[in-house]
Structure formats: C-alpha cells, structure tokens
C-alpha cells in the first residue's frame, strides 16, 4: 500500500496529542530543507553515542529510516528523545547558548526532558527559551564519494529569525 508522503509526515504536536499503543519509529527532521540537496536534515547519532547529536541528511530518502536517526514516539509522552538502536536519550549538560546536545543512558532526569512546542520547536523543559538549533555551516561526510551533508546542533535562544533552523517535524519511511 503506497502512503502519500504528506500523510506520512506528522508534526510532533500531533503525535503527542494522539494516544498511541505501540512505538512508531520516526525521524526528527528540520521542517526547512535549508541547503540540503538530497533530503532534509535529521537528528543523528554522530558515529557513536559518546559523541553529541548532529544533523545529517535524512536517510529516509533511500526508502527506510536509519538506526542512528530513528526515535520512538512512545517516549515523546515522557518528553524524551529516545534512540532505541543505541538505547540512549538526548541530554543537555549545560543550559547555555551554544551548548551541544549529548546522549546518555536514559534516566528521565530534567536534563533529558524536552518540550515539543505547537510551533515545531524543541526545547529543554528546564529552559524553554533555548531551542535545538541547526548550525549555519554545512560539511560533507568524510567519505568523499558520499553526498551526505552534516550540520552541528546546539542550543540557541528561540527566535523567529532562526525559525528555519529551529522548526522540526517527524516522519516515517
């Protein structure tokens, strides 16, 4: 059964407002493609859970979600960004502009809880004035043959001027 691309992409708010009885694997992507030429940018584990989250070309353009870009929707109800393939959650150690978003064993502490706002931003629950923000700079993956694009991910003040870099959506393959 072919599902229309638009119907596959849900906003985080819509997913939180529906009661789900099963975990749906989704990617979390910037709503704006920015300079991406293959696809949008998705939250991605940077090689290993010991590294901070980054943004990378969403692998769903290949027809499936990748392990390092797949989050579980059931954990959104608990304000967690959970990556089941690595059994880790996103975490902010420092609540300052420019701080990176790390990964750690899930423990549901305040450092691991994020607010999914109606306008598409994602913020730490303890500091809702800071938003997950894509960096301005883009680099290509180390594999010279790859066309995968990579951006950094930090906290920045939530701002209408940065909306292109701070508004997120979810989607499945």
Question: Overview of this structure, please?
Answer:
By secondary structure, this protein is mainly β. It has one domain (5-171): Trefoil (Trefoil (Acidic Fibroblast Growth Factor, subunit A)). The strands form 5 sheets. It has a 4-stranded antiparallel sheet with strand order 1-15-2-5. Residues 1-21 have low confidence and may be disordered. The protein is built from 3 helices and 15 strands.
By secondary-structure content and strand pairing, the structural class works out as mainly beta
Count of individual helical segments: 3
Q: Gyration radius, to the nearest Å? A: 15 Å
Low-confidence stretches: 1-21
Domain tally? 1
Task: Estimate what percentage of residues fall within beta strands.
Answer: 25-35%
The helical percent reads under 10%
Distance between the termini: 13 Å
CATH topology-level fold name: Trefoil (Acidic Fibroblast Growth Factor, subunit A)
Number of strand segments: 15
For the record, the CATH class is Mainly Beta
Instruction: Label the overall shape.
Output: globular
CATH architecture: Trefoil
Main-sheet strand order equals 1-15-2-5
Q: Which keywords apply here?
A:
173 residues, mainly beta, Trefoil (Acidic Fibroblast Growth Factor, subunit A), four-stranded antiparallel sheet, 3 helices, disordered N terminus
């Amino acid at each position: 059964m072919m599902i229309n691309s638009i119907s596959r992409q849900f906003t985080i708010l819509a997913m939180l407002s529906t009661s789900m009885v099963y975990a749906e694997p989704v990617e979390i992507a910037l709503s704006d493609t920015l300079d991406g030429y293959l696809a949008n940018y998705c939250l991605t584990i940077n090689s290993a859970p010991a590294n901070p989250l980054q943004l990378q070309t969403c692998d769903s353009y290949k027809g499936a979600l990748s392990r390092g870009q797949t989050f579980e929707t059931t954990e959104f109800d608990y304000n967690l960004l959970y990556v089941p393939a690595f059994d880790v959650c996103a975490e902010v150690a420092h609540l300052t502009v420019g701080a990176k978003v790390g990964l750690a064993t899930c423990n549901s502490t305040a450092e691991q809880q994020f607010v999914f706002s109606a306008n598409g931003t994602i913020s730490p629950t303890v500091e809702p004035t800071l938003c997950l923000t894509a960096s301005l700079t883009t680099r290509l993956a180390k594999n010279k043959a790859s066309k995968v694009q990579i951006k950094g991910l930090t906290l920045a003040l939530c701002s209408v001027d940065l909306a292109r870099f701070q508004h997120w959506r979810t989607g499945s393959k």
